[in-house]
Amino acid sequence: LAGTTYYLARRLYQGIACFFPKLKFLPILGLVGALALILILGFGRSALPFSTETKQFLGLINSYSMGFFLYLLFYTVLLDLLMLVPRILKLSISQKPLAKGIMTICVLLLTSITCIFGFTQGTKIHHVSYEIALEGKKDISDLKIVLISDLHLGSIGSEEKLSTIVAEIN
What we know:
Blueprint: H1 2-17, H2 25-43, H3 52-82, H4 84-88, H5 97-121, H6 158-169
Helix pairs in contact: 1-2, 1-5, 2-3, 3-5
């Protein structure tokens, strides 16, 4: 986790510094490090001497920050890999600070859009119905089959979410 935190902080710093040249690396490292610390505290919250409410709050914060951290990492690595193409072709664009700045803006925008989409769509139940004809079989017209998947039950409203899902199925 320490290496990943440093990598993300370094890449973000390189991109942001082209717009804010007086910016220092340590504040960016501190922000990404705080995000990583939230992940560690969230995963280890059961062993901490905190109240149940505090542990639930840490679980909630951990769930959101983990998504943000992982998407930030994913998009940073993806765009770093895409930037290998101009380097291999020896195009000067890959070495320009503005390219790193634009890439960082893209990473932050893609991460934010993905997280917002996930937060808003993650609580919606999607219904899909299929009619299946079984030739040569007994009459099973009153048989109903339900398939559920990707419930993502965790620390974010699991009980309420599960109650809603059961009510929808019934």
